[in-house]
From TrEMBL, chain A:
WD repeats lie at residues 55-96, 96-137, 139-180, 262-294. GO terms for cellular component: SMN complex. This is Serine-threonine kinase receptor-associated protein. Pfam families: WD40 (PF00400). GO terms for biological process: negative regulation of transforming growth factor beta receptor signaling pathway; spliceosomal snRNP assembly. Transmembrane segments: none annotated. GO terms for molecular function: kinase activity; RNA binding. SUPFAM superfamilies: WD40 repeat-like (SSF50978). The keyword Electron transport does not apply. Gene3D superfamilies: YVTN repeat-like/Quinoprotein amine dehydrogenase. Keywords: Kinase, mRNA processing, mRNA splicing, Receptor, Repeat, Transferase, WD repeat.
TrEMBL record, chain B:
It holds the Pfam family Gemin7. GO terms for cellular component: SMN-Sm protein complex. GO terms for biological process: spliceosomal snRNP assembly. This is Gem-associated protein 7 isoform X2.
Amino acid sequence: MAMRQTPLTCSGHTRPVVDLAFSGITPYGYFLISACKDGKPMLRQGDTGDWIGTFLGHKGAVWGATLNTDATKAATAAADFSAKVWDAVSGDEVLTLAHKHIVKTVTFTRDSNCLLTGGNDKLLRLYDLVNPEAAPQEISGHTSAIKKALWCNNDKQILSAAEDKTIRLWDRSSMEEVKTLTFDKSVSSMEYVADGEILVITYGKTIAFYNALSLDLIKTVEAPATINSASLHPEKDFFVAGGEDFKLYKFDYSTKEELESYKGHFGPVHCVRFSPDGELYASGSEDGTLRLWQTAVGKTYGLWKCVLPEDLGSENSEQLYTSPPEIKA
Amino acid sequence: MAAPVPVLRLPKGPDPNSRGFDPSSPRFIALCRTSIPTSAAPEADAEELQREQQVRSELRENFLWCLHAMTNKKVQFHMHEKVKVEATFGASDIDVLNFQVSDLQTPIGVQKEALIRSQDVISLSFDM
């Protein structure tokens, strides 16, 4: 008998969750950081959603948050015109990087030695975390606020998306623009999949997949509603997307077929990301919650417990907690 | 009608009393760099380590006694941007992130009850 998806709701934020990121897989599991307009980004255990700690210090909405691969450092971008670097084990603030306007995006290189930031001042900044006193290198070119910036091609290149409806590829050493993609709509999100060099972009109701090195289009898929964020499964068999109709959609990457849709959030979905092992995906919403969703519904993983058909209705199932059915909007 | 996937429990939410990052968690113990200089060194001299730890304990104890002594006393806070305010000290929270004060004298009036962010404070002084 098919089972119905039970999303796990992570509460704690008091305002919309606008960004989220997973770490890599560490000896202690993997972790999840959420950026929230309440100014208090939170760290959670990735496979259970259990809260670990809150990074306190920002004085404005936090627009971007990221973890380094081994989850020892976190970085956040905020409306208080600063980006901060944190010790993700102790929760202590390690660095405050002052900017001239709202900072929207932060990301570490793989060796965690360089931090890339971007925001409303239209500049990309590269901070050397080994010599934090040194002035950052600046890359200019975008003509409006930068929404998202990423490292790609083994941290040799940078991809940035801005309100000027372009995505630009930059060379890190020369700091020059290599290529530009122009759209007729604002790009709502961008995700980079290193293995396979794939770029996932969303705009309007479209989820588009590009080759991250050449910026050649691979394919586009249309969703039933305006999409704010999408994420490709590590094995590249599925992708998930969420947006303005509050639902999460799951698509087959090869056939582009819509496989499933899930209700659950009480507001638009702002961000969605697969976990590094692909077993679950997390979504952040205007409703102030994060939800964790199973990729393979009914599988035993994290807090989800597989129940065989013969156990349903027997004494065994009393030990399990069945969450109350979601109230349909 | 498909049955919902059962769960063992719901994800744990934030602790209202602390910012988390449990120091007794295995990850913290394994990864947190100690701030004791001697024990951070590869070969730690046991005697030196003990002496350092003792001094740290004394400093910490002094700080806690100081907080205790300040309770209900008038304290002057020297803050950033050349701000100096006076208030009656109530208490500090456990992570020393906020100070609870009463009758905070500000240029725009007296605030009966207030929370002062500790990171905004450069120094404070009071009469014993």
